[in-house]
Amino acid sequence: MSDWLRGRADDVALAFGGDVVRYGELSRAVDAAALPPGAGAVGCRVGTDPVDLVVTVLAGLRRGRPVLVGADRAAADRLSPLLPEGTELGLTTSGSTAPPGAAPRMVARTSASWLDSAAPLAELAGLEARDRVAVSGPLHVSMHLYAVLHALSLGATATDRVQGAAVVHATPTRLTRIVEEPDAPRTAIVAGAATGAALRGRAADRGIRLVEYYGAAELSFVLAGEGAVGALEAFPGVEVELRPAPGGDRICARSPFLALGTVDETGATDLERDERGFATVGDLGERMAGGGIRVLGRGDAAITTAGATVPAEQVEARLAALPGVAAAAVLGEPHDLLGQRIVAVVELDAGATLEQVAAAARGVLSAVELPRRWYARPLPRTASGKVARAALRDAVLSGEPGPGFPAAHAPDGTAA
């Protein structure tokens, strides 16, 4: 566990919500932490104070007890006997949900599967000891918890204050706002979705260096880089293959950073790996002519329309780059003739209209990719800032659009 805390005793380790904790104080708090009795897993529920969460995680690791981040004590007690052997951390994925009173689905991993990626990421991002590293979301989200532990492993300061930080970890959605801050960090480590050309351009104008990576809670880091068109290379220590699958080529990875598997109240499931040790979460990618791999999105988010398969996130990225579009999401809804038709839901900038956006979309999308129905409304989001696709799909497909949804219309006048 000492490898997670490498700062000098008097250096600031954590600065959250006005609380400042130095490395010496943090180490003593970890030693003194009161964990639940017994030897089972320790729950760390959503909404836990950030400093308390970090102390609990480190105390569990120090004492050899798995810590389930995002599960309360009752859920941890139920999941504890089901955890794969060797589990030290349990993490929820960004889209994990569970019925009230039920334990969430957890991704089980070892501490080393995270710690071993610390040095390669620090080198890619140019992170150094005593940097101030900001996170832009809650720590029960795995990418933000990793960012804090990573900072501590370098001897840096982890903080929730973006202004004045050297580096910030953010999703593209959060970064859209951060780049407008007067004292924005000089480097942004971006993950969670594709970064659009417009956002890359705005960051460049502000002198902000973008280090992008693709990964998943089950796989950890897979691809990373600073490609101007979103082309990423294999993260150091990771072997990547693209394998044919319905809808495109599936991204498969083999590395020491893979999780052990997943667990919920029905039991544990080993991470699905082939006979060579490669695993995937179903995301699709394409190899670029100039080198590198561009991530297209989740294969199960692909839309089959008029006999063609359209990756939803590919269309979303092109729509989000259009003038007047703050954010975009697309989904497929059943259609008697097409099988599915593409529906677009967009957040509009002030003064923009759906008609303008639909007209501009014809210039960047093929006929099969072009949405047949359009809505304008704020997009529901998860705690990590990603689009809450299930909630959005339910709202659109239920026929009850709710506040912010105008009546469905095709701005070009064609039949919806």
Task: Give an account of the 3D structure.
The structure is a single chain. The protein has eleven helices and 24 strands. The chain has 416 residues and is an alpha/beta fold. It has two domains: 2-294, ANL, N-terminal domain (Rossmann fold); 306-397, 2-Layer Sandwich (GMP Synthetase, Chain A, domain 3), CATH 3.30.300. The strands form four sheets. It has a 13-stranded mixed beta sheet, with helices on both faces. Helix 1 packs across helix 2.
Mean pLDDT: 88
Domain module tally? 2
CATH topology of the largest domain: Rossmann fold
Look at the structure and name the CATH superfamily of the largest domain: ANL, N-terminal domain
CATH top-level class of the largest domain: Alpha Beta
Number of helices: 11
Q: How are the strands of the largest sheet arranged?
A: 2-1-8-7-9-10-11-12-13-19-18-15-14
Uncertain segments of ≥5 residues (pLDDT<50)?
401-416
- Quantity of strands, as a count: 24
Strand portion, in percent? Answer: 25-35%
The biggest beta sheet reads: 13 strands, mixed
Q: What would you say about this model in short?
A:
The chain has 416 residues and is of the alpha/beta class. The protein has eleven helices and 24 strands. Residues 314-386 form the AMP-binding enzyme C-terminal domain.
List keywords for this structure.
416 residues; alpha/beta; Rossmann fold; GMP Synthetase, Chain A, domain 3; 2 domains; 13-stranded mixed sheet; six-stranded mixed sheet; 11 helices; 24 strands
